[in-house]
Amino acid sequence: MSSPRRTRVPVSWTALLVVTLGSWAGAQVASDVRGAIGKIDLESIQADLEYLASDALYGRHTSQRGQEQAAEYIAQQFEKAGLQVVPGHDGWNHLWEMGVIDVDESASRLLIHRPQGEPEPFAVRKDFIPVRISVDGDVRAPIVFVGYGIQAPKFRHDDYAKIDVRGKIALALWQEPRQDKGGRSFDGKQLTRHASFFTKAKLAQERGAVALMVVSGPILFGDDPEAAGFELPSHNWPQISKKRERIEIPVVHVSRGLAEALLGRDLEEVQKECDRRSESHEIPDVEIDLGVKIRPTSRQVANVVGYRPGSDPELKEQHIVLGAHYDHMGVDFDGTGLIHNGADDNASGTTALLAVARVLANSDVELKRGLLFIAFSGEEEGLLGSKGYCEKPLLPLSSAVAMLNMDMVGRNRLNEITIGEPDENRLLRRSIHRANVTPGVRLKIEYGGNEFFNRSDQFHFHQAGVPAAFFFAGLHDDYHKPTDTVEKILEKKVQRVARLIAGTAAELANADATPGGSR
User: Is 375 helix (H, G, I), strand (E, B) or coil?
Assistant: First the structure.
């Protein structure tokens, strides 16, 4: 994605702001709201960021276990903050359904055949798991160990130089040699394309192999699959049902125990030898019977929703929506297997949402209208979670007076925020600016970035006629990369954005008039 174009406020709108500011710029938000805003602390922000962007959640990919763990965490924080379940709804989750593909366990198999004895079966998900670039297939063939399965003339490395894999199954170590020797790859800086499943599978296929088995080397990944991540990447299923680049042969990730049963040796010793020189060789008197089957299915996925009711007898039926998506890109198993932690995109926005919930759920803050907090899933797959909510809302969209969405609010300049608000809604912007003059906030606001307005969750609310604002700190070089990590987040900026959102939401909740909309 290209960097956003900073769109300045039009001259006519700037002039209108000057006139309008004259009547209220010196006003302050209510004292109870100012007190609440001041309680948004850096310690809670840091804790939320570190958990949501941790390796333990495997990049929070929609429909996978890491995303479900994130949803559980958000629901727990909503409850601790004092939010309520939406009246008439069962639980914190708003469920929507999506098409996925998953491993068909009944039709997938792996057996070792030796000249004597019965075939030795191995269990799917426990001993082996298909990689998402794999095709369905059934093969029975001899097996060949091909070291790291790399052919890289630049690095003078060729695991196929002295081995013939035609009509055979190749077994390879994952990633690259010498990753523990002062660098993560051949070039000592970052993993090259030779580390990826796709490159290894494509090469094996070109050399005539009928399938590829890959094992995680213990030197890099250790003995604890949960701590090391990826002994078997079972957490990477199910997958979103959409077209993906695939190889023409079955590709599976196998456990260390299975690889050692084939090699007849300790895998760490084998890997040490492969780090010194290519150790490709035949594995005699062994055939593998491998079956891979991936099936289409569907899965319910959760948006997480919490509610703070309003207090005014007449206005409490109305509400303000506060949103942020909590999903991200997951683990890139088509590539090097690195986790995309998504610290800025969008652990930062989700963290700001939780910070606002903690201070505005408090009944000591007077709010005439209700607040509806929504952590969306499926944003990275095409705004699916917000679409699912707007199609089947828990509260009528006709009673939503505004929607404030936070997406990527933790990077770039500390004191700047871009707000996408294409309607130039006077009352909505006035509420934002009243909140912004509060001590502890005072960000430089630029209205713009509207070329990205249809690429985050406020879009579906805007389409439904709800006045919406998109709080966004801009793109950076780590966007959608494994390098979007928590140590790069400006926690004070997340704090200031959360305070701005909290103040804006309170202003909207207590205003005599509403921003209106196109409904």
Answer: strand
